[in-house]
Amino acid sequence: MTIIYLHGLDADPNANKAVITANHAKALGIDTLRPDLNCPPDDVVAKILALLQDNPNAVLVGSSLGGYFATLLSDMTGTPAVLLNPSIRPDLSFTRFLTDNFDGQTLADDAVIYTTTGGWQICYGDLAWFEKHRLTTKNPHKIKVLLKMGDELLDAHATKAFFESCGADIVAQDGGDHRVSDYDEQVRLVLEWVRTFN
């Protein structure tokens, strides 16, 4: 069994939750792959598909934007996924970059609207990609979701409603934050979920 950990926006393979997951998984004899997702969405999908082809018994663990990609790839391949405060509509949440920086300007598809700390230049056209690739959660029995209802960045109530309507397994915890600052305490639950898919 292998975990493929998918980091969020403005993170990288050495993000705090990625490292904590890998360390705890190693103690259980589970390998963790941590791809760098700071690239255009088509490249992210290709990168994850290649890893899944090489690791057919993998479980995806995705945080925030990584949770979006974990759900998308689960839809595409039937791979189980554990989601941490997942993004469900990046095409909507990324519009904050337009509001913050462009104030109603008309933009070309290749106009860079934001550059992540990892170097991904998000283009205006990427919003259309995400809108076109809406999540459907075709395999809800293979999806487990950990939500912090105090998430200050994404609408946890909308996320909860979406995954409830799909029939996925959700643990919604009061308070907390988008980063899941108490992940040291939550990682045991995440790995219990991962092991149920074995």
Secondary structure layout:
Elements: E1 2-6, H1 16-27, E2 31-33, H2 41-54, E3 58-63, H3 65-77, E4 81-84, H4 90-93, H5 95-101, E5 112-115, E6 121-123, H6 124-132, E7 143-148, H7 156-166, E8 169-173, H8 183-196
Parallel strand pairs: 1-2, 1-3, 3-4, 4-7, 7-8
Antiparallel strand pairs: 5-6
Question: What does the model show?
Answer:
There is one protein chain. This protein has helices spanning 16-27, 41-54, 65-77, 90-93, 95-101, 124-132, 156-166, 183-196, and strands at residues 2-6, 31-33, 58-63, 81-84, 112-115, 121-123, 143-148, 169-173. The strands form 2 sheets. It has a 6-stranded parallel beta sheet with strand order 2-1-3-4-7-8, with helices on both faces. Strands 5-6 form a two-stranded antiparallel ribbon. The radius of gyration is 16 Å and the shape is globular. 42% of the residues lie in helices and 18% in strands. The chain is built from 8 helices and 8 strands, in the order βαβαβαβααββαβαβα. The protein has 198 residues and is of the alpha/beta class.
Short description:
The protein has 198 residues and is of the alpha/beta class. The chain has helices at 16-27, 41-54, 65-77, 90-93, 95-101, 124-132, 156-166, 183-196; strands at residues 2-6, 31-33, 58-63, 81-84, 112-115, 121-123, 143-148, 169-173. The strands form two sheets. Strands 2-1-3-4-7-8 form a six-stranded parallel beta sheet, with helices on both faces. It has a two-stranded antiparallel sheet with strand order 5-6.
Which residue ranges are poorly predicted, with pLDDT under 50 across at least 5 consecutive positions? none
**Whole-number average pLDDT?**
96
Number of helices: 8
Q: What profile does the largest beta sheet have? A: 6 strands, parallel
- Share of residues in strands: 15-25%
Please give the radius of gyration in angstroms.
Answer: 16 Å
Strand arrangement within the widest β-sheet reads 2-1-3-4-7-8
Approximately how much helix is present in the residues? 40-55%
Q: Give the overall shape.
A: globular
Separation of the first and last Cα atoms: 7 Å
List the helices and strands in order. EHEHEHEHHEEHEHEH
> What is the number of beta strands?
8
Q: What class, by secondary structure content?
A: alpha/beta
